[in-house]
Amino acid sequence: MLRVKKRTLLLIAGIVWFAAGFNVARLGVISYLAIEQQWYWYLLSVVVFLLFGAMFYRMTKKHTKRITGYREERQPFLRFFDLKAYIIMAVMMGGGIGLRAAGVFPDWFVAFFYTGLGCALALSGVLFIVNFICNELMKTARNT
Questions:
Q1: Domain ranges of the chain
Q2: Which of 87, 111, 126, 141 is an S-S bond match for 32, by CB 3.0 to 4.6 Å?
Q3: pTM of this prediction?
């Protein structure tokens, strides 16, 4: 299996989380275009963003600590998540895709929920990338 420096796992996590968040938010924005614009839908997007953002922020900190705590410098590239995170991701993706495909979620729900959730996911990706950059800067400072 391909092994990378453990710091690189932070970058991989950032790219994966940002891409997932961007795509989820994109679906939300597309749904916003299909509904009657009401101020409260935007407020609900902010509430979803704050709730999931707080949860993803804690998760980002936890995964960053786990990744930087690995003893061996080179790790399998899939170790940017632990098993629990992969299960959560699979359930969320499978559930979201399945329920949307079944037509369970109306456009108004997809609009506010997916926009808030997607922005929170994307911001977590940015936080992972910031952690990667900070880790690289600290490494560079130690070597000078």
A1: 3-143
A2: 111
A3: 0.90
